[in-house]
Specification:
The protein is built from 14 helices and no strands. The chain is mainly α. It has one domain. Helix 9 packs antiparallel against helix 10. The radius of gyration is 18 Å and the shape is globular. The mean pLDDT is about 85. It catalyses: di-trans,octa-cis-undecaprenyl diphosphate + H2O = di-trans,octa-cis-undecaprenyl phosphate + phosphate + H(+). Keywords: Antibiotic resistance, Cell membrane, Cell shape, Cell wall biogenesis/degradation, Hydrolase, Membrane, Peptidoglycan synthesis, Transmembrane, Transmembrane helix. Its EC number is 3.6.1.27. GO terms for molecular function: undecaprenyl-diphosphatase activity.
């Protein structure tokens, strides 16, 4: 399979899965196993193209970011709380991610961990959806500081590949009284500092490997643009699905995909 085609396929996988509660990293790891490519060679590619999906959030929600920026200049309390909540929720992932970086990297090479995490995460989503009723928080700026900290720590569970950063963030927010749409959008916005931080860390730690890597900047650019375009479509559809049907469809997908992956990995 040509490197260009691999770049397009991985860009599609990233764009589809980054903001759905199904684990983009987990799917990229399983894709590496399925297609038989060298995951070590393409590992940096997988990290960098996530910025394409993040850019989709900036483009789709530019009015929100513009309004928040104007509010900060005017010292608007709502804008200040909005930014405060994003930064506070980001801190646990930054601290714990740096502390456990080597252990996290080791898990990235374990596709069976991903498969089981998909199944367990799907069951967890169904449980949270059933137990959580009558959310009281509508709006990111309205999330109390203590609950924001809780969401930040819950997001750290996603350091286990296959758990899903967006899934952990959304389920954490739901369990703490945040309504569905706000929980989903909070996960979108929180992805920006989280994934930027992860990308900068990987670039800094693997600079020499990037320079000498077989995967070139052409492939990275193709994957980046592909992830960006696909993510725009997926985010729009995701918000609509969640508003009407909740997160159960994604939970059942996780369970089915995880079981299929466990069976395939056990028999190959």
């Amino acid at each position: 399979m040509s490197e260009t085609l691999v770049a397009i396929l991985l860009g599609i996988v990233e764009g589809i899965t980054e903001f759905l509660p199904v684990s983009s990293t987990g799917h990229l790891i399983l894709a590496s196993e399925l297609m038989g490519y060298d995951s070590a060679t393409w590992g940096m590619f997988n990290v960098v193209i996530q910025l394409g999906a993040i850019l989709a959030v900036v483009v789709l929600y530019w009015r929100t970011f513009w309004a928040v920026a104007e509010g900060l200049i005017k010292l608007n309390p709502v804008s200040i709380r909005f930014v405060r909540n994003l930064l506070i929720a980001f801190i646990p992932a930054a601290v714990i991610g740096l502390a456990l970086h080597k252990h996290i990297e080791a898990l990235l090479g374990e596709p069976m961990v991903v498969a089981w995490a998909l199944v367990i995460g799907g069951i967890a989503i169904l449980v949270v959806e059933r137990l959580v009723k009558n959310p009281t928080i509508h709006g990111i700026a309205e999330i109390p500081l203590v609950r924001t900290i809780g969401i930040g720590f819950i997001q750290c569970i996603a350091m286990i590949p296959g758990v899903s950063r967006s899934g952990a963030t959304i389920m954490g927010a739901l369990s703490l009284g945040v309504e569905r749409r706000t929980a989903a959008e909070f996960s979108f916005f929180l992805a920006i500092p989280t994934m930027l931080g992860a990308t900068v860390l990987e670039l800094a730690k693997n600079h020499d490997a990037i320079v000498s890597a077989r995967v070139g900047w052409d492939e990275i650019a193709i994957g980046f643009v592909t992830a960006f375009i696909v993510a725009i479509v997926v985010i729009k559809a995701f918000v609509g699905i969640v508003s009407k049907h909740g997160f159960a469809p994604f939970a059942w997908y996780r369970i089915a995909a995880g079981i299929a992956a466990i069976a395939w990995l056990s028999l190959r």
